[in-house]
Amino acid sequence: MRRRLFGSVRARATLGATLVVAVALLAAGAAVLLALRSNLTDQASSEAESSARKVAVSIATGTAPAALELPDGDDTPVQVVDGDGRLLAASEDLERISGTGSSDVKPVTPPVDDDGGDDDAGDDDGGSDRHGGRGGDDDSYAYGEIADDAEGGKGSATVDGETRDYRFASLEVKNTRQGDLTVYAGASLSAEQSAVGTALTVMLIGFPVLLGVVGAVTWLVTRRALRPVEDIRSEMSAITASQDLARRVPEPATHDEVARLARTTNETLAALETSVERQRRFVADASHELRSPIASLRTQLEVGSAHPELLDVDGAVADTVRLQELAAGLLLLARLDAGERPGEARIDLATLAGEELSQRPVGRVAVRTHLEPVEVAGSRSQLARVVGNLLDNAQRHAGSRVDIAVRAEGPWAVVEVADDGAGVPETERERIFERFVRLDDARARDDGGAGLGLAIARDVAVRHGGALTVRSSPAGGALFELRLPVAPVAPVA
């Protein structure tokens, strides 16, 4: 059942479309999640750097770490660490922190007085002022230097019993009263995690639904598209069962591949019907043609057996020869229909025509020749049969003269056989090449033959890559023209 299901074009098309969409959705979903996470992380980094810079500015302008007004630890946990790693200030309610320069959460330095100086700093010649600056000419410790760029990192913090992930920014402040300090400020990643989680949930729910819709739509569309194909298959099955080649498959009113398939199928059926009908006629005509000489020969033998003095030996020999020629013609046609290849022998048509003329006795018809050497490739016996058939046909219908010419015309070798007889009517010039067709039905069989000569001649010509046509001759009779490709020049050894 599974093999039958996936052997269906509809099933494979549906599965293929669903897989393609699934891969595209997974790639797009991954890109969206990565972009969303990157944007929100960058946003948190910017917020953390902004908070760190605000605290750094306060320190740089003289505010002591213990006197800093730090942001709420839930949103932005802050630490101020000196060069020795001691925690000087931290956000309120900070219980645990990681990812910064110190894991401490309680400052280790005592708070400073409001005047910002030490108890022994107020001497007579102007010690520390209330902002932590120093008197005299050296005020390098009154104003810190804030680094241009902040460094980023990721960690976590527990504030008032709640643990969250944060994006931390660290910013250095140099040359303060407490030495070089580093401010760590964090921005919560809860928004990023919530947004990514929501997007992932939507994708996990929406993607299967979307894939189901794609699969259903593809299944319905392919069903509609392949319905004409099923109709064609059903009709072909019925034609095979009934063996009625006159039937045709339905052709859809579209202009797509299925419509072209239907038209090609009908053309194939028409050609097959013609071929079968032609074969039936051939068998019927062959049976009819064979019946006459066989019946005549049998009659003569039966009479000769009963009355030897009445035996017509010449007539029996003539019927036997006619029967032999008919059988040879039928055998050659059968080989041609079976697709027998003509061979690659090189034949000089002028020599071949001369040999065929020499085998015919001189009769009432004069034969004029104009033979130029020209070589073709093919079967010598088959081409001899063609030239012989054309000569027999011309001598049979000529009044007093037959002309045969062999010449080369560009890539073609041309053989022309003309007579001065009654000619062939223009409407019958294709019909005479059909098998068992004889236009002069009133003539005697002994004079007319079985009607296979011209059919064999054309079939052989076509098998050799050429053509055989008929038109009127200058003398008023028929002119048969045989065209064959000239044999390629043999390579020099």
Count of separate structural domains: 3
Mean pLDDT score, rounded? 81
Taken in chain order, the helices and strands follow as: HHEEEEEEEHHHEHEEHEEHHEE
User: What is the end-to-end distance?
Assistant: 65 Å
The share of residues in extended strands comes to 15-25%
Structural class computed from helices and strand pairing: alpha+beta
Radius of gyration, Cα only, in angstroms? 54 Å
Largest sheet: 7 strands, antiparallel
Shape: rod-shaped
Which spans have pLDDT < 50 for at least 5 consecutive residues?
Answer: 110-142, 441-446
In total, the number of strands is: 14
Number of helices: 9
Give the helix level as a range of percent. 40-55%
Quickly list its features.
Heat Shock Protein 90, Helix Hairpins
Brief summary:
With 493 residues, the chain is an alpha+beta fold.
Report what the structure shows:
The chain has 493 residues and is α+β, with helices and mostly antiparallel strands. Helix content is 46%, strand content 19%. It has nine helices and 14 strands. The protein has helices at residues 2-6, 9-60, 190-242, 257-306, 313-337, 349-358, 380-397, 445-448, 453-463, and strands at residues 78-82, 87-90, 94-98, 145-146, 151-159, 162-176, 179-188, 345-348, 366-371, 375-378, 401-409, 412-419, 467-472, 478-485. Strands 1, 2, 3, 4, 5, 6 and 7 form a seven-stranded antiparallel β-sheet that branches. A five-stranded mixed β-sheet has the order 9-11-12-14-13. Strand 6 (162-176) and strand 7 (179-188) form a beta hairpin. The radius of gyration is 54 Å and the shape is rod-shaped.
